[in-house]
Q: What sequence folds into this?
């Protein structure tokens, strides 16, 4: 089932206005500088925040319909969200953390094995490394058997090796799970490598940019490193833009 | 004269037992009140929150004797609350407990409130909600274990405060010898009567209890 988002929310400095679709088995990356409204968008999709107007639907079910004052709680959306910072429950062991989100503990050990953290299953999050914690957070998210996977910059605090490992896992998960995945990142290269659709977002506006436009070129390491003054709103840029000027303008 | 003899000769048992009873009862009440109150204060907003928050915090900044006087007017036989009870609760054991609870409550509530209001607690609540857990499950299985250390530390601090409470206890309890003279009031009485050895022995005992509490608190914060 596909995720469809068409919402608007007034934030402090700008109006968040997003319209996007994410089909099952595809990964949609949302890239943009800090403060562009990416995390707010993820929070709205997960049900942690409410939009001012618009709708969010998943398949034939509406999660938000502001005209009907409909808001499905995060508990009832069956989504999973992996945050940038490690968000395991500190009083539970790694295994207990993963079981906490699951219906039962069937398949938990296989999941731990798959992510290479079976050896820390009985340790508390404070006594394992950052990479192991984030792998455990992925396991926790997957153990819920979600209908939609949301990733809020999950790789940004990781070392290169763990980042590469988790990127590979994510590529495989995309095929295996066949659910929509929305992935927020600063890193254009990461978006380029993983995503089927890339939405570039600035000051609350998002619009699709297709992966083909980036493909022939080396992506710059980070949107934030690019000169902000030449940033163009992609809505205006997409129809005419060539791949090269696309990167230059970003 | 060695320390044991000094203590045996100068420490009256009645104020010690009374203080023990007051501290135990008030600590139990503080434990029962502080967790739901702190949780509500941490999660709610609006004027009612501001009013309750101010009322809970007031004993930290308001002079205890003045607060004791206000409570005396409120709970006394002719006070608006006192009239509700047929028999006056002033100058009795319940009055001592009320004074101890009010004095210690902010010290129990504030650390728990701060822990529950922290960005980490908010984030863990959100993670648990996304994992499909109900509010009750989140409270019992996420927030309570998360705030466990703050709860223990807060209640210990409150117990210590209850043990040392004088101003409100004097006003509400009346310092009736043999009935409402707690250890702290007994030290005051001893000094007033020139019994410095007795005051010294009692101070030594209260000091030992307070230091033990501090050691436990430090162990909790270090773990």
A:
């Amino acid at each position: 089932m596909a995720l469809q988002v068409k919402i608007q929310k007034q934030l402090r400095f700008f109006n968040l206005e997003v319209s996007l679709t994410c089909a099952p088995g595809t990964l949609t990356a949302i890239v943009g500088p800090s403060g562009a409204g990416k995390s707010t968008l993820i929070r709205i999709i997960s049900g942690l925040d409410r939009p001012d107007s618009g709708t969010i639907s998943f398949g034939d079910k509406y999660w938000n319909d502001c005209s009907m004052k409909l808001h499905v709680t995060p508990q009832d959306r069956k989504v999973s969200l992996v945050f940038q910072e490690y968000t395991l429950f500190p009083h539970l062991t790694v295994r207990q953390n993963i079981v906490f989100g699951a219906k039962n503990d069937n398949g938990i050990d296989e999941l731990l094995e798959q992510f290479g953290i079976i050896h820390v299953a009985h340790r508390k999050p404070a006594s394992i490394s950052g990479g192991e914690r984030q792998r455990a957070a992925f396991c926790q998210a997957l153990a819920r058997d979600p209908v939609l996977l949301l990733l809020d910059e999950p790789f940004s605090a990781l070392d290169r090796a763990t980042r590469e490992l988790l990127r590979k896992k994510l590529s495989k998960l995309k095929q295996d799970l066949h659910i929509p995945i929305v992935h927020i990142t600063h890193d254009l290269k990461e978006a380029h490598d993983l995503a089927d659709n890339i939405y570039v977002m600035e000051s609350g506006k998002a619009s699709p940019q297709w992966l083909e436009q980036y493909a022939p070129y080396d992506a710059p390491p980070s949107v934030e490193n690019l000169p902000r003054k030449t940033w163009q709103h992609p809505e205006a840029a997409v129809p005419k833009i060539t791949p090269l000027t696309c990167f230059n303008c970003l | 004269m060695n320390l044991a003899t000094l203590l045996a000769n100068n420490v009256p048992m009645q104020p010690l037992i009374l203080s023990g009873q007051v501290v135990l009862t008030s600590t139990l009440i503080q434990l029962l009140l502080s967790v739901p109150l702190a949780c509500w204060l941490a999660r709610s907003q609006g004027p009612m929150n501001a009013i309750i928050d101010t009322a809970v915090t007031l004993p930290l900044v308001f002079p205890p004797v003045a607060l004791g006087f206000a409570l005396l007017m409120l709970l006394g036989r002719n006070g608006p609350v006192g009239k509700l009870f047929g028999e006056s609760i002033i100058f009795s054991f319940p009055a001592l407990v009320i004074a101890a609870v009010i004095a210690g409550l902010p010290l129990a509530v504030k650390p728990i409130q701060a822990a529950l209001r922290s960005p980490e607690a908010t984030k863990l609540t959100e993670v648990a909600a996304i994992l499909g857990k109900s509010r009750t499950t989140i409270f019992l299985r996420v927030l309570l274990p998360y705030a466990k250390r703050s709860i223990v530390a807060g209640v210990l601090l409150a117990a210590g405060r209850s043990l040392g409470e004088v101003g409100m206890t004097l006003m509400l309890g009346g310092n009736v010898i043999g009935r409402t003279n707690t250890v702290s009031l007994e030290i005051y009485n001893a000094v007033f009567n020139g019994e410095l050895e007795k005051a010294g022995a009692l101070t030594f005992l209260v000091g030992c209890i307070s230091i033990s509490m501090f050691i436990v608190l430090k162990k909790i914060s270090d773990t």
Notes: The two ends of chain A are 32 Å apart (CA to CA). Chain A has one domain: 3-78+146-249. The first strand of chain A starts at residue 3 and ends at 10. Chain A is about 35% helix and 25% strand.
